[in-house]
Design brief:
mainly beta; Glycolipid-binding domain-containing protein
C-alpha cells in the first residue's frame, strides 16, 4: 500500500498550489485512493476518495474542496451530485462520459487503468468530466491517450516499470507527458512526487 506526498503547482509559472498526502492500494474489487489536501502552508484544503472497479470504472468518488462537495459514480455514463458550502443546495449532473478527472494525481492513474493501453495500442480517445478547483465546477473534456514507451529501471529491489503516456487535449491540441509506475504518478505537468514510503502497487 503506497503512502506518500505529492506537491501540486501551476504548470506555467510553478506557483505552489497544494500538497496531497495519499495512500492507495488494489483490492479484491479494484483500486482505492484516499488523500488529504493541504495548502502550501499546511492548512486543510480538501480531500479525495476514489474507488475503481476491476475494469477501472469509478464506482465511488467523493471530493471536498473549499467547503464544496462532489459525490459521483459511473452510472449511465457518469453521474454526480455537487453540494454548495452551506449544504442547502445540491445539483445533479450526468454526462455520457467514461470517467472523472481533476487536479488530483489519482485521476491520471484511474484513466490509465481504465484504458489499459499497451505500447502497441493506437492513441485512444476518452471523454472525462473534470472537477476544477476551487469550487469543483464540472466541465466535460475530451482527451487522447497513447502509451509511448514502457521501460524497466533497475532498483535496489525489483525492477521498476515506468510507463510514459502522451496526453492530448482534443479541444486545444495541447500535449503533455505523464510518467506512471503502477499506481503512483512519477511526474506530470504540475505534479511532483515528493515522498514515497513503499514501492508502487502493480496492477495485474
Amino acid at each position: 500500500m503506497p503512502r506518500g506526498r505529492y506537491s501540486l503547482h501551476d504548470p506555467h509559472d510553478h506557483t505552489p498550489l497544494s500538497e496531497e498526502h495519499f495512500h492507495c492500494a488494489p483490492g479484491p474489487s479494484g483500486w482505492r485512493y484516499v488523500s488529504q489536501v493541504t495548502t502550501p502552508s499546511g492548512d486543510p484544503a480538501g480531500s479525495v476518495d476514489l474507488a475503481l472497479d476491476d475494469l477501472g470504472r469509478p464506482i465511488r468518488l467523493e471530493l471536498h474542496a473549499a467547503s464544496w462537495q462532489v459525490r459521483g459514480a459511473a452510472l449511465d455514463g457518469v453521474t454526480w451530485v455537487r453540494t454548495d458550502p452551506t449544504g442547502t443546495h445540491a445539483t445533479e449532473g450526468n454526462v455520457r462520459a467514461h470517467a472523472f478527472t481533476g487536479a488530483s494525481p489519482a485521476f491520471l492513474i484511474a484513466t490509465a487503468r481504465l484504458l489499459r493501453l499497451t505500447p502497441d495500442s493506437s492513441a485512444t480517445r476518452v471523454r472525462l468530466v473534470a472537477f476544477t478547483d476551487p469550487v469543483l465546477a464540472p466541465r466535460t473534456v475530451d482527451q487522447s491517450w497513447a502509451l509511448i514507451k514502457r521501460e524497466a529501471h533497475a532498483t535496489d529491489n525489483d525492477p521498476l516499470t515506468v510507463d510514459e503516456y502522451q496526453v492530448t487535449a482534443l479541444d486545444t491540441g495541447e500535449q503533455h507527458t505523464v510518467h506512471l509506475s503502477g499506481d503512483v504518478v512519477l511526474s506530470a505537468p504540475g505534479i511532483e512526487l515528493e515522498d514515497l514510503d513503499s514501492p508502487p502497487s502493480l496492477f495485474t
